[in-house]
Design a protein that fits this description.
219 residues, alpha+beta, 6-stranded mixed sheet, globular
Length: 219
């Protein structure tokens, strides 16, 4: 039987590339927006990691909700990675914080924080897969070890910077191809996305002049 060649989407057409994966910018940017809003609820009295933790939690929640509600995807916890997965069990999306190169076409980014072994295992599987897997029939949607090995795990990589009174969130949807010492060193494919701009940075709640140090004598 002859096999028809499937042309890869134009690299400049991010919407076509997202559509080929079954997702949309309208599902991804709301997650970044919700994360930024959650980040701003942290005050100086919260633990230092609170802004990032709250942003991460909203990134995961909104990405899952958008794909579940609009595309019928499923929530997936795979090898300690919090993901949402399409019904064919071929594409999954998670989130990751990148560095200043995030969203730039010429310079591939690295993840800002060291990742665990699960990301390295995901990259190993990604590196062995075809970029455009053939869709599976509905009656083949069964979670098995073989299907797990065919799962592509993409990440919505984001990096926020404050520019005056605005926040710019650079972002891309990318497929890691190699992870060394907890950092992505090679991307199998990247889809740079438009910068998300947000304004209205409100000063956090302050309950006093600032932090104080209380000396404690140890006996």
């Amino acid at each position: 039987m002859a096999v028809l060649a499937v042309a890869a989407p134009d690299p400049d057409d991010y919407r076509a590339q997202l559509a080929a994966l079954g997702t949309k910018l309208e599902y991804l940017h709301p997650a970044l927006r919700a994360g930024e809003i959650a980040r701003r609820t942290a005050t100086p009295n919260h633990p230092a990691n609170t802004p990032g933790t709250r942003a991460y939690q909203e990134h995961v929640r909104i990405i899952r909700e958008m794909h579940i509600q609009h595309e019928g995807w499923k929530r997936l916890l795979h090898d300690h990675l919090e993901l949402v997965c399409n019904s064919d069990k071929t594409i999954a999306i998670g989130v990751m914080i990148g560095d200043a190169a995030t969203g730039e076409r010429a310079n591939p980014p690295r993840n800002l924080h060291r990742r665990g072994a699960a990301t390295a295992r995901a990259a190993e599987v990604n590196a062995q897969l075809e970029l455009f897997p053939h869709p599976m029939r509905r009656d083949e949607i069964v979670l098995s070890a073989e299907e797990t090995d065919r799962l592509q795990i993409w990440f919505l990589v984001s990096y926020r910077i404050e520019v005056g009174e605005k926040v710019h969130i650079h972002n891309e949807l990318s497929l890691p191809g190699e992870v060394v010492n907890g950092y992505v060193t090679k991307w199998k494919r990247r889809i740079p996305l438009p910068v998300l701009e947000m304004d209205g940075i409100e000063p956090p709640y302050e309950d006093g002049p600032g932090e104080i140090d209380i000396p404690v004598d140890f006996r």
